[in-house]
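**User:** Here is a favour to ask of a fellow structure person. Please take any protein you like and set down a full record of it. No explanation is needed for now; the record alone will do.

**Assistant:**
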Amino acid sequence: MAGKFKYGKVAVVVFITVLIWVWADLALDERYPVSGATITIAKSANPSLWVSFNDELSVSIDNIVLKGPASRIAEIKRKLRQGRKPEFDFDAAQEEMDEPGEHTLIVLPFLQKNKEIKQLGLAIESCRPETLPVNVVELVKKSLVVKCVDEDQNPVKAATVEPARVDMSVRKDWVGDARVRLTRREVEQARVGFIEKVPYIELAAGQVRWSAATVKVTMPPEEEMLQDYTITAARLSIALSPTLQGKYKVEITNLDAVMSPISVRATPEAKRAYELQPFPTITLYILDDDKNKTGEQRREVIYNFPQDYIRNGEIELKQQPVEARFKLILLSSGRPP
C-alpha cells in the first residue's frame, strides 16, 4: 500500500504559510498622513449644557499619521478619494467632561479609541493639535420675546406673534430675543391666515437652538397695513462722480417740480423713518457721459426709501417718479474734458 497521506504535516505547512503571509503583511506596515479630519461635538443628552470648542461645534485636525498594513492603508486611501474625510464625535459625558467649566481634551488618546479605526486594523501614531479646549456652559431657562425677521435677518415689524414670548435655555448672561424667520411666501401666507413657526436662538455663529414650542405668526392685510401719506419736506441730493466734481455744476430747470411733495403708501413707522432718515429723500444721479451731451437733459430722480421697509413691503411710491430737467455747465476754472 502506498504511503499514507500525512494530514498533520499538511496542516502544519498551511499554518506556517499563513503565519508567513500575516507576518509579511505586518512587516509591510505603512504610515500615511491624513488631513481634513474633524472632531465634532455630539448632541448632548443634557439640554441644559452647551458644549463647544471655544464656541465652535467642530475643529479641524491636521497631520493625523495612520499606521497599518498596506492593504488597510490602501482601503483608507480609497475612502479618502471618494471624499469621505475622517470624522470623530466628541461626547462630553463619555469623556467625563460634562461639568460646567473649561476642560482640556488630549487629542491623540481620544482618537486612538475610535472604533472604526480599530476595526480597520489601523493605529494613529500622532496628530496636531495635541490638545483642544473644551468649554461647557450651563444654560438657564429664560422667557424671551419672539421677533420675526426676513430672509436677510431684517425685522418684519408688522408681524404679530402669539404667544409673544417663549421659554428657552440660554446662557446666564444672554441678552437678546428668540427669532422666527419668514420667507416672502410665508409673509404672504400670514396675511390671509396664520403660519406656525418654531422660534430659535443662536448661542454662537451657526449654533442654533430651537424652542420646544411653536408660535403662530399673522400679518395685517396689505391694504390695511399701508396708508396714504404726503411727504412735504423733500430733500434733494445731486450725485456726481469725482470725474465731474469741481469741473461742472448742475442747473435744474424745473426745481419746483423736483422739490414738490411726495405721495407714498406706507406704514406709519416706514413713513416716519423715511422722513427722519439722515439721507436725502430723493437723489438725481449725473452720469459721466452726460458731459458729452448738449442742451437740456432729463432723468427721473431716485426715491431713497429705507431698504428694510422696502423689503417688507411697508413703503412704496404712489405717483409717477418726478423727471428732473437739468443742464451741465462747465465751470470757468475747469478745463474741457
Observations:
- The chain has three domains: 22-137, 139-221, 226-330.
- The two ends are 120 Å apart (CA to CA).
- The chain has a mean pLDDT of 87.
